[in-house]
Amino acid sequence: MERKEHRNKIDNALKEILIPFLREKGFKGSLPHFRRQQSDRINLLTFQHSLYDTKFVIELANCPPNGITTHWGKEIPKNKVTAHDIAYRMRLGSEKYNSDYWFDYGKSSLFTDNYKKIANEIIELWSEAEKWWEENPNEQKELK
Questions:
Q1: Mean pLDDT computed over 130-136
Q2: pTM of the full predicted structure?
Q3: What phi, psi does 51 have (nearest 5°)?
Q4: InterPro entries this protein is in (predicted)?
């Protein structure tokens, strides 16, 4: 199977399983960027796919509730900011696996739908994300 076919299958599994879960948790957005407005910050979640392999990471970050101003002066409003705009972030799964964790959707299995398995693994790791967002407030410059 080509990488593009794998990508379509993982995107479909994420849309079927994970995105409804994210909506229940208060997130807005669409693949690859999601935001959840809190009173004192915005929780950010971004999917970053490898350009060369059938893997992706999920980047987590926080930013001030009104968006950020980059160190070069660019203002990014709260409805446009992504985890990639934030210097301080974490990759989901890194705590559990004690590594720079990548979800690999190119592996096949005779007995399991690997794409749905990965979508469910993200849900299983969710407490890691919530803990990180709560314990790691943003350090970015707030928009005035």
A1: 91
A2: 0.90
A3: -75, -15
A4: DUF4304 (IPR025412)
DSSP the chain: --HHHHHHHHHHHIIIIIHHHHHHTT-EEETTEEEEE-SS-EEEEEEEE-SSSSEEEEEEEEE-TTEEE-TTS-EEETTT--GGG-SS-EETTHHHHTS---EE-----SSS-HHHHHHHHHHHTHHHHHHHHHH----SPBP-
Q: What is the rounded CA–CA span in Å between residue 106 and residue 1?
A: 9
Closest to 82 measured CA to CA, from 103, 57, 62, 55? 62
Taking the C-alpha atoms of residue 115 and residue 88, their distance in angstroms, rounded to an integer, is 29
Q: CA-CA distance, 33 to 44, in Å (whole number)? A: 8
